[in-house]
Design brief:
The chain is α+β, with helices and mostly antiparallel strands and about 500 residues long. It has ten helices and ten strands. About 55% of the residues lie in helices and about 15% in strands. Helix 1 runs parallel beside helix 3, helix 2 runs antiparallel to helix 3 and helix 3 runs antiparallel to helix 4.
């Protein structure tokens, strides 16, 4: 009876021990490494105690049996076997856990190393960019100080010139008085003293005239220097804007790289990139350049969904530009009708306007840059570039501009819808003023503002404000007139892969 009770208790304890070990192994897989080590130490500490207690209990129960040594030996062997089996399973689980944790730690260390290296390289690039930005800001500050000094000097020179002009007027009045005296003394023989006085006054007047001419020349040189300083400041501002844009791009790139490590894809959509490859056409001067042509001249292109027509391709800056307007000598009258501006007019080898319909058929293929090149009567060349969009005929070829860079102040409204208008097709009547009639030539007029590159060609000696406002000029909102000798307007795609 005692033996059967002992076996029942032993089997129950065995089953409880096995269940306990299995639960411990399952829990070890879901908890952290520190908790697993605590449970293992606890099991190692409890197991000998449980074994010793069980051995004492078995020994006391078997004292009354006939063969106590044999029973105790079998009980001990069973307990040792159960404990060894549990410890073996526990060891296998611990070994698998250690291998798995070691692999995860190696992956983490590798990712941390890559991140640290990338962060270090970005830090070096950021430091270099900040140093260049600081140098550019210092240079800009020095140029602004020099600009202020030149402005003050120019004002002083103007005051001196005004004083000299007043003196000149007074001297001329005296000369006229002396001339009257000379005519009166023509009959009467002048004295030696009067002759000397007349000679001294003439020499003084000639000296003053020479001095005034020198001052005029100095003022003109100062104006030229001011223009150069202003252009340098504009270029430095463009560089600063480019650096700030580069920093924003690098920051966004870092964020996108972190997101991509989590599995987020970065997609780029280009709806026009495959058109040229599919159709095999020559839709733009850029495609001609990519095919190996390097000479500027007249070529035939055929934009997508359009008829073929001739254009002038300007090969420069390592690519090709499509010229849409060219003015060099005023040989062509640009005061044309709406139909003429729509279809185009002039000679592609000389002065011409390509035509709104042709320009629209080119630009609707993708995103384009608008470049305006200007030359004044002192042969100073300047340029400005815009990102732009051009609407179709249903919108009167509405134009929207956004300045990118340039060496001259902007004179065209940005982020504003500008409708093209001519004398017979005016969509910009403001304050009862017919802009195309007052400002001869078709253009994207805005509130009859004072910039018109299709106006009447006027030489700089033309007098009167009416002639000047009809001329070819560039007028920033807060700046002086740039009376122009020649202009050229060109377009170029922003994505060169469109015509590969």
């Amino acid at each position: 009876m005692k033996r059967s009770i002992y076996r029942l208790n032993s089997s129950t304890e065995h089953s409880h021990s096995e269940n306990y070990l299995e639960k411990s192994l399952l829990n070890n897989q879901s908890i952290s490494g520190i908790e697993n080590m605590k449970i293992i130490l606890l099991l190692l500490f409890i197991a000998p105690l449980a074994l010793s207690v069980r051995a004492e209990k078995d020994f006391s129960l078997l004292d009354s049996a006939t063969s106590p040594e044999t029973k105790s030996r079998f009980a001990m062997l069973d307990d040792v076997r159960i404990l060894a089996n549990g410890l073996l399973q526990l060891g296998h689980g611990l070994k698998d856990f250690v291998h798995k944790t070691k692999g995860q730690m190696n992956d983490i260390f590798q990712k941390l190393y890559i991140f640290d290296r990338s962060f270090y390289e970005l830090s070096l690039q950021t430091s270099e960019i900040k140093e260049e930005e600081e140098q550019l800001r210092q240079t800009t500050a020095r140029l602004q100080i020099n600009n202020e000094e030149i402005k003050n000097l120019s004002q002083e020179m103007n005051l001196k010139i005004e004083d000299l002009i007043q003196n000149k007027i007074q001297l001329q009045e005296k000369v006229w008085g002396l001339e009257d005296k000379v005519t009166k003394l023509a009959i009467i023989q002048p004295t030696v003293q009067e002759t000397n006085e007349i000679s001294s006054l003439k020499a003084f007047v000639e000296q003053q005239d020479n001095h005034i001419k020198q001052l005029h020349k100095i003022v003109e040189d100062q104006h030229v220097q001011l223009d150069k300083q202003h252009n340098q400041i504009m270029e430095l501002e463009d560089k600063l804007n480019h650096i700030e844009l580069q920093e924003l791009t690098e920051n966004s790139f870092t964020e996108e790289q972190a997101e991509s490590n989590e599995g987020s894809p970065f997609l780029v959509h280009n709806s026009t990139a495959a058109m040229h490859k599919l159709k095999g056409a020559t839709p733009d001067c850029t495609a001609l350049y990519n095919s190996g042509i390097r000479s500027s001249g007249i070529y035939t292109i055929k934009p997508n969904s359009s008829e073929a027509f001739d254009v002038y391709c300007e090969m420069k800056f390592g690519t090709s530009w499509t010229v849409i307007q060219n003015r060099v000598d005023g040989s062509l009258d640009f005061n044309q009708t709406w139909d003429a501006y729509t279809n185009g007019f002039g000679d592609l080898n000389e002065e011409f306007w390509l035509g709104l319909h042709k320009i629209y058929s080119i630009t609707k293929q993708g995103d384009y840059i608008l470049r305006i090149e200007l030359q004044d009567w002192k042969d100073n060349k300047r340029y400005i570039e815009y990102a732009f969009t051009l609407g179709g005929p249903e919108t009167d070829y509405v134009l929207q501009l956004s300045r990118i860079s340039g060496s001259i102040p902007n004179a065209l409204p940005e982020q504003t819808e500008l409708r093209f208008s001519t004398a017979d097709h005016d969509m910009a009547i403001i304050n009862d003023l017919d802009c195309p009639q007052n400002y001869l030539g078709g253009w994207w007029h805005s509130e009859c503002e004072e910039t018109n590159l299709n106006g009447k060609y006027v030489a700089p000696r033309s007098k009167g404000r009416l002639d000047r406002t009809k001329g070819l000029y560039w007028k920033p909102r807060n700046g002086r007139y740039y009376l122009l000798k020649s202009t050229r307007i060109m377009i170029h795609p922003t994505d060169l892969k469109i015509f590969d």
